[in-house]
Design brief:
Layout: H1 5-13, H2 19-22, E1 36-37, H3 45-52, E2 84-85, H4 96-116, H5 122-135, H6 143-161, H7 177-190, H8 193-208, E3 214-219, H9 226-238, E4 246-254, H10 259-279, E5 283-290, E6 307-314, H11 324-335, E7 341-347, H12 356-378, H13 384-405, H14 409-413, H15 418-423, E8 427-429, H16 434-444, E9 451-456, E10 460-465, E11 468-478
Helix pairs in contact: 3-12, 4-5, 4-6, 4-12, 5-6, 6-12, 6-13, 7-13, 8-9, 8-16, 9-10, 12-13
């Protein structure tokens, strides 16, 4: 990324950036920061959206401007946000939060570009990150400052991880499991982000197995298994006769995720078994340990007459990182089981491999800015619970995503097109029911008005915050399955 040298130093070392001085930085397209009329009292994510628009002044001269995702229009010039792109617009009396917020976005993008761009420089990256750490902390008073702190920490971890001199010094933040679960539960109460996928997938499963006596769910990444308690309760409530439906869950774990992951899957099984016993749900649980990321149906215990359901939650908060090759191996093998239903839930982050790391970084910043805005609408930044969730949960979540988007372009490209992959590899879409759509909308009614749900074709639903898509759920079956 090319910054005029003197202007970048002013941006970097100043404790109060004058927008008029910063406006001297002009792109090769003739746009300058003076063209941006920004009201930081409104949603700060719109600054990122303005950078991602065709008029953005942040991209390298030789690269294409980052396009808007999902064919969304009007984001950069929304009258409701006070942000517009026009020639000759002058800044009024600068506000501290406005100047600092804009400067933080510049520095974050500069750090990302310096860490992976054509002119990659570890020393420049280190210096920019050191400056960012001076400017922000996770306990700051604005959304932008706190979000910048989490991205700064995530970029710092990447820098440490890639260090040739001292790779052993890199350590991930480790929090007590009870704190992590508490933070996760708080997030569920603050936002529909997680429960949206759980709810829509569970409803689709209930509908698909309505007349089946034995149900076998193969769960790609079970985590704490919180999704299945509600499914058990629903099965019990409708099983009024003597022949109750039997539920069996097979949870996968991988040696590549370490002993802690294996132990967590086993503990999840104990909790689910105890819960099933307490409500009278016939239940069995198997733990399938994989030595590698490759999956084979021969490792499963299959029972004649069971309706097989494949549950695939990808890269949601608290879910382990799995490579595209691991997901492809799982879904390819799962197809041979002729599953009654495949549920696929994933975050709507634009990860087109051919766009490069900087594009992916900007889109990730865009994604989390929308998440922070949605949290602010439901729980003030001054609330201690909000800080707890950010520290224990959201910070590691940001860091994990930054790790994913640094993968090579060919690998990253797979993340963006799972529905397309399913449709071209022997799976057929299953239509979302009217009941499922209504339940999703009912869930959103419990939260702030900024959340929305839209249909994704005939077989999917998308959770969004204002103009930004956050999470999608889609439903499939093997082409050989008779519905």
């Amino acid at each position: 990324m090319n910054y005029p040298y003197e202007d970048f130093l002013d941006l970097f070392f100043s404790t109060h950036t004058d927008p008029l001085a910063t406006a001297a930085s002009t792109s090769s397209n003739g746009y300058s920061l003076n063209d941006l009329d920004i009201d930081w009292d409104c949603d700060f994510r719109d600054v990122i959206e303005s950078i991602m628009g065709d008029e953005g002044a942040m991209m390298e001269p030789e690269s294409e401007a980052v396009p808007m995702l999902h064919d969304q229009e009007g984001l950069c010039n929304s009258a409701s946000t006070g942000l517009s792109v026009a020639d000759g617009v002058s800044f009024g009396e600068p506000k501290t939060d406005e100047s600092k917020g804009l400067r933080l976005v510049h520095l974050l993008v500069a750090a990302a570009d310096a860490s992976t761009g054509a002119n990659k420089s570890r020393e420049l990256t280190r210096v920019i990150l050191a400056r960012l750490k001076d400017l922000v902390s996770p306990g700051d008073r604005t959304n932008m400052e706190r979000l910048a702190a989490h991205f700064t920490n995530g970029l710092s971890k990447l820098l440490e991880r890639d260090s040739v001199l001292c790779p052993q010094q890199h350590r991930d933040d480790v929090y007590d499991q009870a704190d992590v679960i508490s933070a996760f539960e708080l997030l569920q109460n603050m936002s529909p982000y997680v429960n949206f996928g759980y709810l829509t997938a569970t409803q689709a499963i209930l509908e698909a197995v309505k007349y089946e006596r034995r149900i076998h769910i193969v769960d790609y990444d079970i985590n704490e298994g919180v999704q299945w308690a509600s499914l058990m309760q629903a099965l019990v409530s409708r099983n009024t006769g003597p022949s109750a439906q039997h539920l069996r869950i097979t949870a996968l774990s991988r040696a590549t995720n370490g002993k802690k992951s294996v132990a967590a899957v086993q503990e999840t099984g104990r909790r689910l078994t105890a819960f099933a016993d307490s409500i009278g749900q016939p239940f069995s649980y198997q733990h399938c340990k994989l030595d590698t990321n490759a999956f084979s149906t021969s490792s499963l215990k299959l029972v004649r007459g069971e309706a097989v359901v494949i549950n695939c939650m990808l890269h949601l908060p608290r879910f382990s990182h799995q490579t595209p090759s691991s997901v492809i191996s799982f879904l390819s093998e799962a197809k041979t089981l002729n599953p009654k239903l495949v549920t696929l839930v994933h975050e709507e982050v634009g990860l087109m491999g051919n766009q490069g790391f900087l594009y992916r970084f900007m889109d990730l910043l865009h994604q989390f800015s929308a998440i922070f805005d949605s949290l602010e609408a439901g729980l003030s930044i001054a609330n201690p619970a909000r800080g707890f969730v950010e520290r224990v949960f959201i910070g590691p979540w940001v860091a994990n995503w930054l790790t994913r988007i640094t993968a090579n372009d060919a690998e990253v490209e797979s993340f963006a097109s799972w529905p397309q992959w399913l449709e071209t590899n022997g799976f057929k879409p299953l239509e979302v029911s009217f009941t499922n759509r209504c339940q999703a909308k009912l869930l959103l009614s419990l939260f702030n008005d900024g959340f929305r749900v839209e249909e994704l074709g005939q077989n999917g639903l998308v959770l969004g915050w204002k103009s930004r898509r956050l999470v999608s759920a889609s439903f499939w079956a093997s082409c050989q399955t008779n519905q």
